Amino acid sequence: MTIPAEEAASALRDAEAAAGRAEAARGYRQASLYLILWGVIWAVANVASQVSIPAGMAAWNIGAAIGVAGSVTIGARQRRAGRGGGWLRSLIVVLAIGGFGVSGAVIVPGLSFVQYSALACLAVGAIYLAMGAGAGTGVGLRLSAVGAAVMAATLIGWVLAHDYFFLWMAAAGGGGLILGGLWFRKV
Q: Could you give the CA distance from residue 166 to residue 159 in angstroms, rounded to a whole number?
């Protein structure tokens, strides 16, 4: 029995589309763990920051250390499981975000803690937006959407909830990352 050329071509296109969707779902599942981890860190550290600046600084330092270790561990486990990722890629992303933060503190030392935190939130949102744009089908537009949402939440919180900016970012930023991670798991 011979399959007509049109049917064969259609079946091949369907198979390629299914493979692309499977690859995207895998990328979203991988990214979800990072978003949930960092969402929890953001929520806890921002609540501590609302309580007091020293508590916030301590929470961010401890949270960043936990986040780096967690991100590297997630990447290494994904790599061992043959699902991409890798500890080095995770470490590079974490170092890029951390490097931006340290550089910002050195270049603009006169910023208040709340200004510095807002700037860091905008930078993380921009990094997620750019990573999503460059990721193609593996993670793609949803990561860009999470990045854009973090940036929008930061600006809205700065303008409308300035006195409660850290609580706003705990809910909108940390909660948004957690919800984004859960959204990615549903793909």
A: 13
